[in-house]
Design a protein that fits this description.
This protein is an alpha/beta fold. It contains 11 helices and 13 strands. Helix 7 links the parallel strand 11 and strand 12. Helix 1 crosses helix 11 and helix 5 runs parallel beside helix 6. It is elongated, with a radius of gyration of 22 Å.
Amino acid sequence: MKKIAILSGKGGVGKSSIAASLAVMLARNKKIIAVDCDVDASNLALVLGLKADAFESWQPVQTSEKAALIPEKCTHCGKCKSVCNFGAITWDEKKGEPIFNELLCEGCGACQLVCDADAIELKKVENAKVGFGRTKYGFYIVSGQLNMGEAGSGKIVSVVKEQAYELAKKEGVEIALIDSAAGIGCPVIASVRDADYGIVVTEPTPPAFSDMKRALSVLDHFGIKYGIVINRYDINKELTEKMEKFANAHDIPVLEKIVYDKKFVDALVNLTPIVTYDKKYEKIFSNILAKVIDHL
């Protein structure tokens, strides 16, 4: 099974919208699975018209830990408070013991390491859920959702991918289309590290250009081949030319340039990929896929 990762660096450039249309077009000729790895704000299923309550299954996930005090063992030394870099441990002056704030605790374990009395334990917490459902386009999508106030996005992405690959094996999937989160942090690294090809979506704005370069550096680190898609290229043609010159200078394929079109917004409002909302975009996305398949 080949894995195609879609990333952007900067958020809001149309990555998930483009991912949805690529999935629909790819599914016409290939057995695919879509994997939404933006667990902090998963929306790929919505773009494909599949709401969360229509998923076939949701399972709780425990990938995070929280520090908890064992009061009878505590010697009230205060070491735990002194090493907490997240402000999750305060001091109860009346009782003379630490107070642990679950919402601020990152589960790093530093407090446990310095506690000579073994008075601190790390407890597993349910910090997300992972589910899957079949879209009306005939392919499955696997998605994860981080619970409010919880951490551990990167680990959850790994669980999402594991479950997606298990389902893909059962379904005889040929290609996994992975929609990563914005940025270049842990969730993105977990999303793209085993990809066979990366599609980097950008737009002609200074922040997007800068973040595109950072996203490319992540793919370079893992030795992944890639190409770029310049979305809304006509909003700043001068900067688009600079981006194309940058791509040519670094032998980066420009897979496609897509115009700014309000129909993309209309399509999103109607929970429909642009390729099914307006048929004229089928050729554009077919061209992108033809180039990607050729690189694969």
